[in-house]
Amino acid sequence: MNWHHYRFRSVWELPAPPAAVYAALERPEDYPRWWPQVREVTLLDDRSAKARLRSVLPYDLVVTALERLRDPEFRILEVELAGDLTGWARWTVVPRLGGGTRARYDQEVEVQRALMRRMAVPGRPAFLANHALMMRGGRRGLSAYLTGGPKGV
pLDDT (tens digit, 9 = 90+) per residue, 91-150? Predict the structure, then answer.
């Protein structure tokens, strides 16, 4: 087993139409407005951005995201990641039966940050919990952002 490799899938049920969800997700520069764990995003050009992320563990992750796919018709966004994490991430946005939206986030990465690599085995449960809390904050924050409420925790 490669202890530095992670594969994640999160599904967010959101109370807004798919077009609104996709529009919010395709603007990474706005993520810090609604996703508390996305501390900073700097656009580098029209296809890439640098982000600083921090959940409950006491360290920041810095990644550069390069757009690989932006498909508004099928509402898919995919980026290649470099920096403290290397790999890819993808959003797939679909209508939910009965109204609202299901946004699925898939990510496959390898940790490059030296501390996380050294702590790969004993730290893995904490890293997984940290990611889960980050995704929960994102889901809550986006839901509130789309409906005009306060951002998530």
Answer: 999 999 999 999 999 999 999 999 999 999 999 999 999 999 999 999 999 999 999 876
How far apart (Å, rounded) are the C-alpha atoms in residues 139 and 123? 24
Q: What is the mean pLDDT of residues 67-77?
A: 98
3-state secondary structure of 83: strand
Strand residues in the chain grouped as ranges (E): 5-14, 38-45, 48-53, 61-71, 76-83, 85-95, 101-111
Closest CA to 3 of 124, 102, 103, 128: 124
- In order of their start, the domains of the chain are 5-147 (3.30.530.20)
Q: Which residue type occupies 121?
A: V
